[in-house]
Amino acid sequence: MITLKAYAKINLGLRILRKREDGYHDLETVFARVNPFDEINLELDSKISMTSNEINLPIDETNLCIRAANLLQQQSGIAKGVKISLIKHIPIGAGLGGGSSDAASTLIGLVKLWELKISEEKLCSIALELGSDVPYFLKTGTAFATGRGEILEYFSLPLPYRIVILYPDVHVSTAWAYQSLESSNTNHIPHPTSHITLKDFLIKNIHNPHELNQNLLNDFEPVVLHQHKQIGFAKLMLYSEGACFAQMSGSGSSVFGFFKDEHKAVSAAEKLQNRYKVFITPPNFHPE
């Protein structure tokens, strides 16, 4: 049996640049790994099957872990199967990449379990068929993502803050968020930092909360927070509890806050845990 931890991610800033002819959108974002993580157990079997502790999660052919196993089996021509056991801790539809992380971890684990010889390039290609951000989760660390999220440049960006994540138990459709952004005028407003990439901006300003608050933007925030007031309220709660910076992750609905002070971070988590699902990530976090 192989056991893996599939960590969540947050988006540090998100720029939607343009809609492409293939229907996808070109974007810029920075992915960073955070707590929580899902637990995945893989056991060799004659067929592909799955169980999970999450009753709201489909465990049929639509599940990303099942799809990952089927796709890898087809592409490699292997006759082996697997029993997948998934213990969910990352909320579903939270903008934290839980499903994509699970799929990537399944691919990584199956390469070992099935004793496959497969190139990194081929594995990335399979991951991309599953979702735009699945390739990111094949490695650990922070990455500058462009294209539709699949062109990745990993770089060092220690985050010197305790990160408190709130999940307000709201589901936001990414497709709806894109449609709403296209029909609004907000995506025509030039970014205040459009002369430099998000990667370079963060390297220069990660220790400067004032710059982060002024210029690190998530293009989805105006339309999503207008429609879902409780997400905006969760963000305000982080500021009221002492966060020096707060933002929605991806298309939502989770929000995260940077805390310089450990006591304030722990206090915020304790105060808000009755209202939200709360997760804390330590400074300079490196997944196991």
Question: What report would you give on this structure?
Answer:
This protein has 288 residues and is α+β, with helices and mostly antiparallel strands. The protein has two domains: 2-155, Ribosomal Protein S5, domain 2, CATH 3.30.230; 162-281, Alpha-Beta Plaits, CATH 3.30.70.890. Helix content is 33%, strand content 28%. The protein is built from nine helices and ten strands. Strands 1, 2, 3, 4, 5 and 6 form a six-stranded mixed β-sheet that branches. A four-stranded antiparallel β-sheet has the order 8-9-7-10. A hairpin with a 4-residue loop joins strand 5 and strand 6 (151-155). Helix 1 (64-76) packs parallel to helix 2 (98-113) and helix 1 packs across helix 3. The radius of gyration is 19 Å and the shape is globular. The protein starts with a strand and ends in a 7-residue tail after the last strand. The model has no long low-confidence stretch (mean pLDDT 95).
Provide a count of the helices.
9
Helix-and-strand structural type:
alpha+beta
The helix content is 25-40%
Q: Which radius of gyration do the C-alpha atoms yield?
A: 19 Å
Question: Beta fraction of the residues?
Answer: 25-35%
CATH topology of the largest domain: Ribosomal Protein S5, domain 2
